[in-house]
């Protein structure tokens, strides 16, 4: 009940914030969230009375089923859900319902999966997981929020909590009850393709915002109708791996960091990478995802000391561990041995997208052969069931069907306004010579660059598809070009060219350039220089003899020295998502920039590679008007 009231209140508050430039109404909502959130945290183990009663009735097969998570795409026949008594289903970044990718298809897919559980003896509902890492980003029409790197620049836990509260609401509109977020990585090398999934290079900021995200998703009570199970990931030191640099076939450097090896002593591991997990456990996170990566050569997904000794015993984590996508396969070339190692190390549920049948059979054998003790199985299942009880999943009247009344607010104006607010707060002003910004709403403006009318570039990876895609892939969003057109007075004149040609006669140029979308290892990059094509675009506008404002869309700091010099003003907009209006708010002074860098901005690739020297901009830098 309280969760429901909070949801409605939040909506109202956000409507209010449309009219509030100061955001005072927004802060009120934030305050209330924070107050109610502090009441949260009934320990998961307090459900053990009910859990153990159920556990005692379960057969080995029923227990192993609970530990198994298959991917919807790979479940050829939905009857496999009851046949293998699956505990969970996921849709990964590229896994969409067969019926399509809209709200209705997703909701139906959720309900069809849940309906299968009614055919099992114990009828335990499923946890259904997706990567909602910046909004409910797999679903067409969802609001896409800035990626974490931008949210880090806001330094605003209240805002992050609200973003995840709204995300939870959009997730629940499809019935889904679990998100593999927040990512609480602490990236230490921006060549890594997942840098943007991190709030900051600073562990304290990651901890603060990670806790806020967990409160937002899980609400003040995991059992609330708008609550979604959170998952802190990827444990541990996914952002601390050492770059493996080689020379590619084209003679250029290749740097591989994703799923690599974090080579460091335990004190460093704890100081930098463990800290967000201490906060996550305190905030009551119900699930944690061990990383593909290794610590000093040993895979985290099979690391008993990290999973059991530190996380479960020392930190007192009472929820469950979900392995990453096929991560168990990487522990040992022999799949059966890999399963034994991982489960014995403390893994509770296995993300086995396509190999779920094999996993089920092999784990059963391992238990019968005594290679995985029954106590370990019981511990894993107890942890999973604790969460299911805490979430109220066992109440089938509530959990088998989605609440379709939530469709009304899905992708709606109130949610978009919150995202717009997040964009305004995340943009960082790096340069503003001669008061170039803010731009007059009556000016003649030439907009240029391939990012200017490109929602795909604004959103980056993990948007509709796993890798994301340039172009207009999401409905309902506002590109920066559209936002500029929406903002100027009728007397203004806005022209546009992708390559910067035709800027003559304008009073100011706005050039939007940056990175093309990517996710995970495909985003690892040894050379973070801005693309030559983008540099040419800036040069073309500059050649018109007008002041130039550069807006950079990127998942990390890039090497920008050359265009920074040419630019009169420079905004780092990160990957802002669908609400480009937030960028225009800053460009035209409807919002005075407040964003502060969440990462140090390097002056050269040498510096990224570890050479010392003065960065281009220090951590925390950010100008205002
Ligand atoms: C990623 C995770 C993600 C999972 C499921 C993996 O490849 O590392 O972050 O949660 O896939 O999509
Ligand atoms: C899935 C992603 C996953 C990736 C891992 C993709 O096909 O859609 O969710 O992270 O594979 O390799």
Detailed description of the structure:
- It is a single chain.
- The chain is of the alpha/beta class.
- The strands form five sheets. The chain has a six-stranded mixed sheet with strand order 14-19-18-17-15-16, sandwiched between helices.
- It is globular and about 80 Å long.
- It folds into two domains: 62-407, TIM Barrel (Alpha-Beta Barrel), CATH 3.20.20.300; 427-608, Rossmann fold, CATH 3.40.50.1700.
- Residues 92-93, 131, 180, 233, 324-325, 520 line the site of one beta-D-glucopyranose.
- Residues 92-95, 325, 466 line the site of one beta-D-glucopyranose (BGC).
Relative helix content: 25-40%
Taken from the alpha-carbon principal axes, the silhouette is: globular
Counted up, domains total 2
CATH superfamily of the largest domain: Glycoside hydrolase, family 3, N-terminal domain
Mean pLDDT figure:
94
Number of helices: 22
Q: Indicate the structural class.
A: alpha/beta
CA(first)-CA(last) distance = 44 Å
